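Subject line: Sequence and fold of a protein, written as structure tokens
Enclosed: The protein record, placed directly beneath this head.
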Amino acid sequence: MSAVRRLASASLLAPRYRRAWFWWGGSRFLLLLWSLQALPYFSRGAVIGDVNIYHGWADTMTGGSFPSSDPQWQYPPAAALIMLAPKLIAHIGIGYVNSFFFVALGADAVVFRLLLGQADRIAAETGREAHLAGVWAWVLGGFALGPILFMRYDVIVTALAVGGMVATVKATTRRSGERADRITWDLRGVLLGVGAVVKVWPVVLLAGLPGGR
């Protein structure tokens, strides 16, 4: 199994995907420079406000309280995990706000990797050239948003939702019969369920679950 995984990972580095990797890496590097103020961005101050709010909530929670009385807190309880996550790396000296950007970048990378892997898997199964429309939509659409992509926690929720959808397809193709049905929907349900308790919108993807699940 590990050899298969290594082979699959190697195929994603094939020359046919080089341009997608180049554009993702280049665009995200530029977004990160804007976010970190290494390059000027015309409206950074207008879009960074949410991260500063997350920072305040994280400080409140590490102090032993929960910001439920704050009228700006309009999120499911598990959103607290995302607000606290940057504190795990903030201690290296880059601060909470910059740490949040790197956490968001990591989630963005996960989505890119999942979409590229899905395109590669379908190409291998069908014997056709990989269709990268979804990959390019993510790369270019994310860049079009500007640094706000790294200044909201939605990209982290999106990674959970995309993971749930991709896991569904993988489980379906790898197993058969009743066991496939159970594993497929359980795995999808777990990932989408986690996404839903972090932010509500992924719950709509559960509409694809079969009756009784």
Notes: Residues 95-126 form the longest helix (32 residues). The CA atoms of residues 62 and 201 lie 27 Å apart.
